[in-house]
Every structure is written in structure tokens, then in C-alpha cells.
Design goal:
The chain is built from 25 helices and 20 strands. Helices cover about 45% and strands about 15% of the residues.
């Protein structure tokens, strides 16, 4: 492992944070970011760091302080405020106690903080308190896990790391591990590295750099051993290529997503929507093609910290029937049912081990292994799914390394797995999921589309913003990506082209596994009296406004049927359906046809719990700096006819409605959200968003 310590970056961190946090905590921030940015050492908050220092309280009294990383904080992007400040002298007293529970430990953490902090101290906080060194670093180093998770672990650790590193038998993180650490530190000289079986590595030093360099030294020794004992066991360049794997995933994703979506218990929103992430590479495809892959890979996770993200075991799809969609769906359904039954049995067998009131997680898998495709991870959000995907990628690599170095993988027993999966302090890392899902917004780069995307993203949705390829699409998505990283997807799509529409939906399936909400918003306008309206102009509007609506809804309907978890479609209609305007015949007629298609869809898709509704706005001129394309087309004629400038035209439209109010894209978005969140059992309905236009009232 390369030593990447950089004195310049350390000094930058100290310069930024030393006031008011102090040099020591600033150095610990740099250490934590350095380690957290290396996936070979730590991923997504896994592992923790600490520093012991002194701090003054409000009245000026000095206290010995343990700054320890808050549970669940992302090490790669940590800030000083992501550390909890504990009374280190008080925490050290735990070393003399023979018995205490996890809950008692957590209570003492809460009552002995030296600075208010909404975060919880890491479940391993006492480990940091009981080791006397100034800086302590705990990682889930990949190479070390390849030594600790095997039947010959002690022999291999001794051969790889020598006698300088102490080895601690597995103990559950929290009170049990803290008691084991207390006994270890009270014994013989410890050196400055401790290997935790089935868990990871702890190093320490008088400085942040010393603790880091011990980690690099130990991990390098582990890597050297594994490389020297590597034997090629696995096939290479098998018939399954990445291109084939990705094509297969795009086809089977909605089947898989539907099967992995747990019930919510809510009649209006009966499912807790999940996001899928494909984990594949040529190496993974070759590994899954190996005869012994299931026995090697469908085993408990590398460290119990991963259980809350991946569960104890993955789901394995045997001999997947990719060429027969119905048979594959049946395979998945049967496999998920069997997994759920087995998981329920596992929780029943061990529920007596749970501390406090026991509530089981849903019994569905979080990771699915599919030979010929790779692994598929799922979570309630793209962030959760990505964490599970990254953990899965590491697990595949480590288990492969164990086999290649002559080892036999050995995971924890069921009772140990259950204790950690249902550990209260581990569960506290999980945030309550938002039951939002995936939305596609056609015409998303326009004013109304932009406003709808803005609202959906703010409410926690994952949004596929669809529009024609070009600068408008790219700049709009880039701006959203800065605000909502990972939850916005650019989908270049021509709604008049069936292949483009199919490809657009396929790109969403590849990114997130499915779709839950379809906003049919793409549309164009033209101004001309019927006597001067060219047939080519009419056909242009007909293709976008009618055929585009048909293709978008039809593709959504097919997808929703395969996914089998319901869905919603909202058409952005117009007041012109009910109150058409002169010189606006092509737009009014084609939007009326679009509206009627949506009403028919509400009849045809109701039996698969897909609700189809309409929102009919009037005179939305812009959303922020994004101008309406419709009004760019219509405005000049309307201004000329009424002798008004742009502001005067907007004032005219505001004054003509009963409420004398401006209609904005935000208003339209709120109407969309009413339907998207299923506030009432409604389908086939229209909400006017027009300030009150009696002639345009739906009837």
C-alpha cells in the first residue's frame, strides 16, 4: 500500500480548522479523510478515528477530551463537527468494570459529552478511550480482512504480520469488544497494532502520521503475503461479456426490482420503493462462472458492520433463464420467497438474543448474485444502494483473494450475525427511508419541467430529466447535480421516436432499476389561424404532443406491468383543452388528444394500480432563469395583437383569472406532487392551475 501522507494537506486542514477546534482535532480530520478516501481501508463511514486532547468548557475548566467519529459519518468528507467530544477520564473508568450493557454504555456516552452534538459516538468509542495512545485509527482494511476471515486465520496472520501485531478473538462491537480491549491493554506491552478477528485493524500512535503509517505498514505486509501465495483458480474471459451482462440487466431490472420491493402497509402507497445498482465487471462475470462460486460467495459478510447494509447472505439465482422472461420472473419470485422464508426463520431462531423491543427488518435480500450479469445491490435510496454495491464489490474481491491464497472462507456464526444485525447502536446508523422513488420528467429542460424536477428533487425523489440532446439538457442536469448529487440523471430522448423512448427508459433501468412516476410534459406550440396553418406544422405538433404522449405512456405501462408495484402517470395538460384560443388550433387540438389518451390510460392501467391524472396550467412564463419555450413561440403574436411588451403580457394573463394571480412552475409542481404522493384515491382527474378561469373549468 502506498503511503500518501501529505504534510501540505495536513497543514491546510490545520489552517482551516485549528480555530476554534484545535490542532489535534484538525489533524484527526485530515487523518480520517485520508483513510476514508481509500476504499482499500474504509468505505462509507465504516471504521472510525479518535484523538485525545484537552478542551476548556464554558467556564474555563480544562477537561481531558476524547474526540471520536460520530456513528455513520462519512470518513472521506468528515468535518470537525462530525466528532463527538466525550469526557475521556470518565470513559476510561469503564476499563475497571466487569459487566455493563450496550444500552448502559450508550447512556453514559449521552450524559458525558463535553460539547452538544446530535450525532452518536461510534459503537467502538470505548475501544478508543481504553487505548492510551493519542491518535487511534480503526479500519476495515481489505487485505487484513483477507487474513482474518478464513479457517487458518491465526496461522496466516502470524506468517504475514509476525509477532509485533496482537490478535484479538472476535467480540461483538460495543460492550463486549470494549471489555476485551480492556483486558488486552492491561496485559503485556501491545505494540501499536491490533488485529480484530472478523472485524478489521486498529492502529495507534503519538501523532496522526504515526497511526497512519502503522496502518500502511501492516496492510502492506498483508498484501505482500496474499500476492506471494496467489494461485490462479478462476476462469478468464468467459462467454459472458460486459456488453451482454448490461443488456441482460436492462431487461430483467424491473422484474428484479418488483420482487425486491417490500410491502409498506400503506393502502395508498403499498410498497417501499427500492433503487438497484448493478455491480459487474469482466472479473466478476468470470468469478460467478466458476463452479465453486456459490459456495465461496454466498457466505456471511467480511465484517458485522456490513450487516445493516447487505444482510447476512445474498440471494443467488441459479441457472437464470434470460431468454425466457416468464420463466426468469418465476425463478426470481420463487427464489425471493424462499429467501424471505429462510430469513424469517433466522430471526425467529435468534430473537431471544435481541436487546430491548424486537422489530424485524423486512425479510427481502439486499444483494442478488446472478451468474451472467453480476451482483445487484438494492437500497431505499441511491446512496444506500451504492453503499451496498461498494461493500459487495469489496466482498467479492476479498473472498476471491482468500481462495486464491489457499484459504477457506470462514464467516461468523448465525447467532453472532443476528446480534450485530439487530444491535441497537448499529441500527441507529440507518436513516428512516423516504418512500419516494424514481420519476421521469419529459421536456424537463423547459420552464414547467424544470420546476417539476426542482420540486421532486427537493422532496427526495430520484429524477430522470428527459429532453432532446443539447446544451439545455446538459446545463440543467449539471446544475441539479451540484445540489442533489446522485439523484439526477440526464436522459436524452426524442419522444416522437419509439426507439429513442425505449432507450431512454432503458437508461433509467440501468441507473436505478425502474420507474415509479412518469410526468408527461414534453410539448410544443405554434401560432396560426386554421386558414393559414400548414399541414407540416400541424403534423409536427401532432408528433410531439400526441405521438409523444402515446409512446411515453405506452412504454411506462409496459414497464409498470412487469415491475408489478403500481405507479403514477401525470400528464401536463393545458387550459386550452377546455378553453381553446384563436390562432392556437394546432396546440389546442393536439393537447386535447394528448389529454384524452391520458384519460384512456387511467381506464386501462387501473387494474395494475397505476393512477393517471392531469394537471392543466395556464400562462407559465418561466421558472427562474429558464424561459418557457411555449411562450417564446406564442408571446410575440400575443404581444403584437394586444400592443403589449413582455411584462405587460404577463400582467394581462395574471389579471384575467379570478384570483388575479401569477401562475408559476412551482404551482404546477405542487399539483403534480398531490398526485405523486397519492393524497386521495384518484385517477382520471384534472387539477386546473390557472388562478380560476371559469371557461376552462373541467366538465
Amino acid at each position: 500500500m502506498k503511503n500518501t501522507w501529505n504534510v501540505g494537506r495536513l497543514n491546510d486542514c490545520i489552517a482551516e480548522y485549528a480555530t476554534p477546534w484545535g490542532d489535534d482535532l484538525a489533524a484527526c480530520v485530515y487523518l480520517t479523510r485520508l483513510v476514508g478516501g481509500n476504499p482499500l481501508l474504509a468505505m462509507h463511514g465504516g471504521g472510525n478515528t479518535s484523538v485525545k486532547t484537552w478542551m476548556k468548557d464554558f467556564v474555563g475548566q480544562e477537561h481531558e477530551c476524547l474526540h471520536v467519529k460520530a456513528s455513520g459519518s462519512d470518513m472521506a468528507n468528515i468535518r470537525p463537527e462530525d466528532f463527538v467530544a466525550l469526557d475521556r477520564a470518565y470513559m476510561a473508568r469503564f476499563g475497571a468494570l466487569d459487566t455493563f450493557s450496550d444500552q448502559q454504555m450508550a447512556d453514559e456516552f449521552a450524559t458525558h459529552q463535553l460539547r452538544p452534538n446530535p450525532g452518536r459516538p461510534s459503537v467502538e468509542a470505548l475501544l478508543h478511550a481504553l487505548i492510551p495512545a493519542k491518535f487511534v485509527l480503526h479500519t476495515h482494511a481489505e487485505a487484513v480482512l483477507a487474513l482474518t476471515n478464513r479457517s487458518d486465520a491465526r496461522q496466516v496472520i502470524l506468517a504475514a504480520l509476525g509477532n509485533d501485531v496482537r490478535v484479538l478473538d472476535y467480540a461483538r462491537a460495543g460492550a463486549d469488544l470494549s471489555k476485551a480491549i480492556a483486558k488486552t491493554v492491561s496485559g503485556a506491552a501491545m505494540g501499536n497494532a491490533l488485529v480484530l478477528m472478523h472485524h478489521g485493524l486498529v492502529t495507534w500512535g503519538a501523532t496522526a502520521q504515526e497511526a497512519y503509517e502503522v496502518t500502511v505498514r501492516v496492510v502492506s505486509a498483508a498484501e505482500k503475503y496474499l500476492d506471494e501465495h496467489k494461485k490462479n483458480l478462476f476462469p478468464e474471459n468467459t462467454a459472458n461479456t460486459l456488453e451482454i451482462a448490461r443488456s441482460r440487466f436492462a431487461k430483467i431490472a424491473p422484474v428484479l426490482r418488483g420482487a425486491l420491493t417490500p410491502a409498506s402497509g400503506d393502502l395508498d402507497q403499498p410498497y417501499r420503493r427500492m433503487i438497484l445498482k448493478l455491480v459487474t465487471s469482466q472479473d466478476i462475470l468470470d468469478l460467478l462462472a466458476w463452479d465453486g462460486s456459490k459456495a465461496l460467495l454466498n457466505t456471511p459478510p467480511l465484517t458485522p458492520d456490513y450487516l445493516i447494509r447487505t444482510k447476512a447472505l445474498s440471494l443467488w439465482i441459479e441457472q437464470p433463464a434470460f431468454e425466457d422472461s416468464e420463466r426468469f420472473a418465476a425463478q426470481v419470485g420463487d427464489a425471493v420467497d424462499a429467501y424471505a422464508k429462510a430469513y424469517s426463520g433466522y430471526t425467529e431462531r435468534h430473537r431471544h438474543l435481541a436487546a430491548g423491543e424486537f422489530g424485524s427488518f423486512d425479510p427481502l435480500p439486499r444483494v442478488v448474485m446472478i451468474p451472467g450479469i453480476g451482483a445487484v445491490a438494492c437500497g431505499a435510496s441511491v446512496a444506500d444502494a451504492q453503499i451496498a454495491a461498494d461493500i459487495t464489490l469489496q466482498e467479492l474481491a476479498v473472498k476471491k483473494r482468500i481462495a486464491e491464497s489457499g484459504g477457506s472462507y470462514l464467516g461468523l456464526s448465525e447467532d453472532h450475525l443476528f446480534e450485530m444485525e439487530y444491535h441497537l447502536l448499529q441500527q441507529a446508523k440507518l436513516k428512516a427511508p423516504q418512500n419516494t422513488g424514481v420519476a421521469i420528467v419529459t421536456g424537463g429542460a423547459g420552464a414547467i419541467g424544470h420546476g417539476i424536477c426542482d420540486k421532486l428533487l427537493a422532496e427526495g425523489w430520484h429524477v430522470a430529466l428527459s429532453d432532446l440532446q443539447g446544451p439545455a439538457l446538459e446545463t440543467t442536469v449539471a446544475a441539479f447535480e451540484n445540489l442533489y448529487p446522485g439523484r439526477i440523471l440526464a436522459v436524452a430522448m426524442d419522444v416522437t421516436d419509439p426507439l429513442s423512448v425505449a432507450d431512454g427508459y432503458a437508461s433509467i433501468l440501468m441507473a436505478w432499476g425502474g420507474v415509479d412516476l412518469v410526468i408527461v410534459n414534453a410539448g410544443i406550440a405554434a401560432v396560426a389561424p386554421l386558414t393559414e396553418l400548414s399541414i407540416d406544422t400541424f403534423r409536427k405538433l401532432e408528433r410531439v404532443n400526441i405521438e409523444g404522449t402515446l409512446l411515453t405512456i405506452a412504454e411506462a405501462g409496459r414497464l409498470f406491468k412487469i415491475q408489478n408495484t403500481g405507479g403514477d402517470i401525470v400528464l401536463i395538460s393545458t387550459k386550452n383543452v377546455f378553453a381553446p384560443g384563436a390562432k392556437f388550433g394546432a396546440y389546442s387540438a393536439t393537447k386535447a388528444a394528448s389529454h384524452q389518451l391520458a384519460r384512456i390510460a387511467s381506464l386501462e392501467l387501473a387494474d395494475i394500480d397505476v393512477r393517471v391524472n392531469m394537471v392543466a396550467p395556464d400562462a407559465v412564463f418561466a421558472h427562474g432563469k429558464t424561459k418557457s419555450g411555449l411562450w417564446a413561440e406564442v408571446g410575440p403574436d400575443r404581444m403584437k395583437a394586444r400592443g403589449l411588451d413582455e411584462k405587460g403580457l404577463q400582467d394581462y394573463y395574471h389579471s384575467r383569472n379570478l384570483l388575479k394571480t401569477q401562475v408559476t412552475a412551482e404551482h404546477v409542481a405542487r399539483a403534480v406532487m398531490y398526485f405523486a404522493t397519492r393524497q386521495t384515491p384518484t385517477t382520471g382527474a384534472t387539477i386546473p392551475v390557472d388562478g380560476g378561469l371559469p371557461d376552462a373549468t373541467p366538465r
